């Protein structure tokens, strides 16, 4: 049994992390905090009434270190890099759900997040927390950068293909759609009900901060890939991500062969499902789970592969994957708290 804390519990990913960990057989949540929210968890999140007596205060490093064996940072970008060094220096491992440690370059971080990175020392030691690809590194990690929600769906969808056929790729276009919870719990006119309901729009076209993350970790699989063209969209639903990935090819490939490659690649993975040939993933089948569903299709002249990838952005795209990383780090059953 380990004791864990959640910093940023007033946000959607923080609440989802808490909800998962309260049911975890090997975990006791002993500390929660949020910068601008104070009070009983049952007042902040009424759906958790009767499930916990935790009280939320502003972050206190002494309390966090004293009460916890591990800290989840579910805070906005630029906040984690000021908290992480203090926690690591005190011997407390960190799983960071923000974007502060996902890119391995302070120059790239400034370009995409618009701020100077304050912790280049630990940035170099960070392990990227995509279990299906980096499980062995996660086992030994003290600082895990939980992947972004869009990159999770994209990397799981693309990696089996590019690891073998990277030289066959002419162009990759990722057409991604996310539920509104992916934007966080902040108050902004763009996310008001009347702006979102019965609406559908693209945003940050070819300029989203998750694009370099996808590029970075795909390049570790294949050095020959062209730059990714990433276009996110906002869906009028609460949660879920569905990505349609168009891979333009310079050689003709067999769909049945690719389907078998994907099934072999993820054969032992508990949270990735390759949907049957002729079918495609749907949000309703992954929302509320830690699953990633992947489907494949090929154009009639076999010069374009279409990969469809679906996840719950708050679970496999955030809190569930963070819990999966914790399970790996501490030697728990990987599915614990997630089934």
Short characterization:
With 339 residues, the protein is α/β, with parallel strands linked by helices.
Level-1 CATH class name of the largest domain: Alpha Beta
CATH topology of the largest domain: Dihydrodipicolinate Reductase, domain 2
CATH superfamily of the largest domain: Dihydrodipicolinate Reductase, domain 2
User: Judging from the principal axes of the Cα atoms, what is the shape?
Assistant: globular
Distance between the termini: 19 Å
User: Using DSSP, what is the number of strands?
Assistant: 15
**Strand proportion:** 15-25%
- Biggest sheet statistics: 7 strands, mixed
Category by helix and strand content: alpha/beta
Global mean pLDDT = 94
Radius of gyration: 20 Å
| Percentage of residues assigned to helices | 25-40%
**CATH architectural designation of the largest domain:** 2-Layer Sandwich
| Series of secondary-structure elements, N-terminal to C-terminal | EHEEHEHEHEHHEHEHEHEHEEHEEEH
Count up the helices.
12
State the domain count. Answer: 2
Word description of this protein:
This protein is an alpha/beta fold. It folds into 2 domains: 2-125, 3-Layer(aba) Sandwich (Rossmann fold), CATH 3.40.50.720; 150-313, 2-Layer Sandwich (Dihydrodipicolinate Reductase, domain 2). Helices cover 32% and strands 22% of the residues. It has helices at residues 12-21, 41-44, 61-67, 80-89, 106-113, 120-123, 131-139, 149-165, 193-196, 211-219, 255-265, 315-329, and strands at 2-7, 27-33, 39-40, 55-56, 70-73, 94-96, 127-128, 143-145, 169-178, 201-202, 229-234, 241-249, 272-274, 292-298, 304-311. Strand 14 and strand 15 form a beta hairpin. The longest helix has 17 residues, at 149-165. It is globular.
């Amino acid at each position: 049994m380990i004791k864990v804390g959640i910093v940023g519990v007033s946000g959607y990913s923080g609440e989802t992390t808490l909800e998962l960990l309260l049911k975890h057989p090997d975990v006791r949540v002993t500390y929660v905090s949020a910068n601008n929210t104070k009070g009983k968890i049952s007042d902040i999140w009424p759906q958790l009434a009767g499930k916990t007596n935790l009280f939320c205060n502003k972050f206190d490093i002494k309390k966090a270190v004293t009460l916890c064996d591990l800290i989840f940072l579910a805070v906005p970008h630029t906040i984690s890099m000021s908290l992480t060094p203090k926690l690591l220096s005190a011997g407390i491992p960190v799983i960071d759900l923000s974007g502060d440690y996902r890119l391995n370059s302070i120059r790239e971080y400034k370009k995409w997040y618009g701020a100077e990175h304050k912790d280049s020392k630990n940035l170099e030691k960070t392990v990227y927390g995509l279990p299906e690809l980096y499980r062995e590194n996660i086992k030994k990690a003290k600082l895990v950068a939980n992947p972004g929600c869009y990159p999770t769906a994209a990397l799981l969808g693309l990696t089996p293909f590019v690891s073998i056929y990277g030289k066959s790729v002419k162009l990759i276009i990722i057409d991604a759609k996310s539920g509104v919870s992916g934007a966080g719990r902040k108050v902004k006119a763009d996310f008001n009900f009347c702006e979102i309901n019965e609406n559908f729009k693209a945003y940050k076209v070819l300029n989203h901060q998750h694009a370099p993350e996808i590029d970075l970790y795909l390049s570790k699989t294949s050095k020959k890939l062209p730059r990714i063209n990433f276009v996110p969209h906002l869906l009028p639903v609460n949660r879920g991500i569905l990505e349609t990935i168009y891979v333009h090819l310079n050689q003709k490939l067999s769909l049945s062969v690719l389907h078998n490659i994907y099934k072999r690649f993820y054969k032992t993975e508990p949270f990735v499902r390759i949907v049957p040939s002729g079918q495609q993933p749907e949000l309703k089948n992954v929302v509320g789970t830690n699953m990633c569903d992947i489907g494949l299709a090929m154009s009639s002249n076999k010069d374009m592969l279409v990969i469809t990838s679906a996840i719950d952005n708050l679970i496999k795209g955030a809190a569930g994957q963070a819990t999966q990383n914790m399970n790996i780090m501490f030697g728990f059953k990987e599915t614990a708290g997630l089934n």
